[in-house]
Amino acid sequence: MNLRHIKNYLDTKIGSRMVIIYHGSMNRKEKYCGFLFKTYSNIFVIKLLNGDIKSFSYIDILTKTIQICV
Predict the structure, then answer these.
(1) CA distance 16 to 7
(2) How would DSSP label each residue in 1-70?
(3) What span, in angstroms and rounded, lies between the C-alpha atoms of 69 and 64?
(4) Which residues, at least 6 apart from 41, have a Cβ–Cβ distance to it below 8 Å?
(5) How far apart (Å, rounded) are the C-alpha atoms in residues 38 and 34?
(6) Confidence of residue 26 (pLDDT cuts 50, 70, 90)
(7) How far is CA 23 from the centre of its chain?
(8) Terminus of the chain with fewer CB atoms < 10 Å: N or C?
(9) What does the pLDDT look like over 31-53, one tens digit per residue?
(10) In whole angstroms, what is the distance from residue 3 CA to residue 25 CA?
C-alpha cells in the first residue's frame, strides 16, 4: 500500500463515520470518533462528534501511528 492508494481510498469515504485510534508515546492511545470531512494532498480532516476538527497525515497510516476503523 502506498500514499496514493490511501488517499484514493479515503476520497471514497468522505462523509463516512470513522473511529481513529492514535498510538502515542509510552503506549498511550487516544480515540477519536467523527466523520471524514475533507481530504487534501498530504492530510485528511476529521470532524469530531463534539464539533472539533482534527487532521492527520496519510503517512501516519503507513507508519501505523494511527489506525482507522470505517
Answers:
(1) 14
(2) --HHHHHHHHHTTTT-EEEEEEE-GGG-EEEEEEEEEEE-SSEEEEEETTS-EEEEEHHHHHTTSEEEE-
(3) 13
(4) 7
(5) 12
(6) confident
(7) 12
(8) N
(9) 999 999 999 999 999 999 999 99
(10) 24
